Structures are given as C-alpha cells and as structure tokens.
Amino acid sequence: MAGFGAAALLFSLLIIAVRVRWVPLESVDRGVAESLNEAVAPSDFLVTLMGGISRIGSFGVMAWLVAIGTTLVLVRKQYRLAAFLVATTVGGLILDPTLKLAVGRLRPVVEQPVAHGGGNSFPSGHSLNSLICYTALLLVFLPALRPRWRRPAVIAVGFVVALVGFSRLALGVHFLSDVIGGWSLGIAWLGLCATAFELIRHHEGLRVTEPLEEGLEPEAADDLRPTEPHVHRPGTARTLALGAVAWVFTFGTLVALGLPLARYRDGNGNVLWDSTIPHWFAAHRSDVLGHVSIVGSEVGNTHAILAIGLVIGAVSLAAIRRWRPVIFLVAVMFGELSLFLASAAIVGRARPDVENMDGPMPTSSFPSGHVAATIMIWATAALLVFPRTRAWWRWVLPVLAVAMPLWVAVSRMYRGMHHPTDIVGSVLLAALWLSAMYWLVTPNCDLAEQPCEEDLAEPAGDLQDAPPARSGPPAPPASGASVSKAAGASR
C-alpha cells in the first residue's frame, strides 16, 4: 500500500510541475530528449529496434493479450479475475486521453524526428497502459506458475515495461517526465484495483494475499494452469518428418496444377471458365454488390484470420486444457501460409484481365490465399468444437465452414482478383494439408476410447522439486490408481 501511495504522490507532483512548467524539470526533459535523439536518429537499426519495442506497448498488441487472458479466465469460470482484467485495462484507456487533454503538454521537438506521436504528451500512454496490462496479466496468472518461476516472471514484466518506456524516449515522442508519469499513474491505478480486489476477498472470508508473490487469487492456481498435467507426446520427430513430407507433396501438387494454368494464354485461358466468369462479374458490378464484396474479401484477409485464430486458440486451450488443439491450429495455419506463399512465388500466375478493384497485389493469382486461409480457420473450428458438444449450436460451425469460404471466393472473383481455378487450387491446398495435419496431430484423441499417447507415457519427474530421499526400508508398491493420483498431485 505504501508503494502505491508513493506512486500516486509522485504523479501528483509531476502533474503540478508540468502544468506550471517548472524550469528544472523542463531542462532535464529537453536534455534527455536531445541526447537520445542524437544517439538514435543516425542509426536505422536503432530506430527500427525502438519502433518494434514500442509496438509491444501499443493498444493493438495489448488489447489482444488482455482479450485472450480474459477469455481464458472466463472459460475457467474465474469471473472475478476477468472483471479485474477488464476494469484495470478500461481504466487505463480512460485515464490516458483525459489526462492528456487536461494537461495539454506538447510533444518534444527534436532536431532529427524519427517517429510521430498523436495527441498531447503527458502522460505517456504506452508507458501507462503497458504497465497496467502486463502487470494485471501477471497478477492474474502468477498462481499458475511454480513458486521458483514467479520472481523471474515479475522481473521479466518489469523489464518489458521499462523497455517500452525507454523506446518512447528514444523515438523522441515523449519527455522523461511523461514516461515516469505514466508509470507512477499506472502503479497507483493498479494499486487501487488490487486493493478493491483484496477487500472483496476479505468480505468473502478469504485470506489476505501478497499479489506480487502469489498472485491475486492463489486458490485458482489449478484452474489458471493452461493444461491438465501430462508429459509431452513421444514421437515428435516422426510427426515433424511426416509433416515435412506432407508439405512437400502438397506444394508439388499445387505447382503441378498451377504452372500449366499460368502458362496457358498468359494465365487468362478459359479453363473452367477462368475468363468467362471474371468478365461476367465485371459486367454486372454495382455499388451494393461492391460493398458486400469488400466485406467478403476483408473477412478472409490476414488480420481477420489472425484475430479469429487467436480467439479459437484461446478458447480451445481454456476449455479443452490440452495443447494438441492449439498445436493443430498453429500447424494448420502456418502450413497454409507457407504453402500459399511458396506456390504463388513459383507459379506466378497473372490476375484476371479485368479491372482490379483492389489495386496491384504483391503475390500471384494462384492459389487464393484468402480462400485457403478461410477454409482452414473455419474448418479447424468445426473439427475442434463439433465432436465436443451435443448442443444445437454446434451445427453453426460446419455451416460457417462452407458459407464463409464461399462468400470470400465469390467476393474475390467479383473484385477481379482471382480465376475460378485459383479457388480450386485453394480448396486442394486446404484439403490436402488439413487432412495431413488432422492425421498427424490427432487433436481430438482425448475423445477416443484409447487415450492420447502422452497419457500412456511415464510421467517425467522434476528433480528440482522432488523431496529429499529418506533412508529406511522401501515402501510397499502402490496401486496404479494411487500412483496416478500422486503423480498428478505432485505436478
């Protein structure tokens, strides 16, 4: 509590000093800004590095991290922790812009500008929100870590927050007092939220905790751990080798189909109406259909697919408590991306010879990456969810697995981006790679009568956590059930 109070006092002093333009503070701020600008601006590497670190503290990155963390705790029915994550994050989003408007401090003016910051300068929003979001996630999930890993986790989060703040100084978009103000305000806000959380626990008769040592809700440790205790699947090398073979054969099939299509009449022959259909769509364009096709095209782009994939991965991990579904999702999507990029680079097919509504594209026409990615993501969702529930809504996912790729495919052809055979190539890519990964990873093996291989393997002991050996006569052998129960408890 004393630390939170000190942070609040420091922020109060800083905001007064900034408002009255206290000369010693402004002198230090300008000196630091000019020195860092002289050191960083001449180096393209440092500018790029600082920009990358700065993005770690951006709203786009942290919003996804908080959304995934909130999804995990909600699925595990830890509603109080979910409320803490939402409240702390939203509070930061409210405090940052309102205080910027109230103080009205201008951004630094440096000799060699290398970045641009929108809005006013005090406090630093990246510093404030990175401290709030990363620390809130740490306090929520700290009980899931072994005690020996908790202090390193706290240090790692502090290091990340410090790097984000320093990157804002190095890029010349904030003064030193802006960054320190953001940190102090973030600590004060987190302290207030953590105190309210502890008061709720006290009201419910739960013990007082040390949040930075054991987390906010130590009793939820088992629910917060990502998966059930088990050892890793044997035969990983075999799976990787067979996966590489499947990738090569899928790639060869795509190239064998795509090259003749790209060479025939410069990629615009009329195989499977490759010329007729794009020209028909181009002749029947309208404003309404144009807007529908824009949405249909966007739901298959990289950002949308990544967003859907993150949600599916988080829900799968939280609900199923196994790594296999997540590994299956990652293997499917990265395999699709690499197969699309490699085959498109080799085939090099021209786009349809009609007006292109989306402008020039960096990749060739065959196959359609939008369609292949859409098939993969929705088919994966259906494969993971459909066999695990008997609720009526499970039928929604198979319908989406058909309807979404169809919408994307028609939209891409309508906008003059793809031939019909490009869509055929995408379907072939998805069918071959998805089948191979489902066979190799077996994401639903826990539903079969035979358990997954990792459940059959001998649990690996943790020598560092094992109790010291005792002298004396050996203990009598335990039953299989007792051994399993003891192994699960020790992990």
UniProtKB/TrEMBL annotation:
Residues 452-491 are annotated as: Disordered. Residues 478-491 have a biased composition (Low complexity). The keyword Flavoprotein does not apply. The keyword Signal does not apply. Keywords: Membrane, Transmembrane, Transmembrane helix. It holds the Pfam family PAP2. The chain crosses the membrane at residues 56-75, 82-103, 123-142, 154-176, 182-200, 240-262, 302-320, 327-348, 368-386, 393-411, 423-441. Residues 79-194, 328-438 form the Phosphatidic acid phosphatase type 2/haloperoxidase domain. This is Phosphatidic acid phosphatase type 2/haloperoxidase domain-containing protein. It comes from Dactylosporangium maewongense.
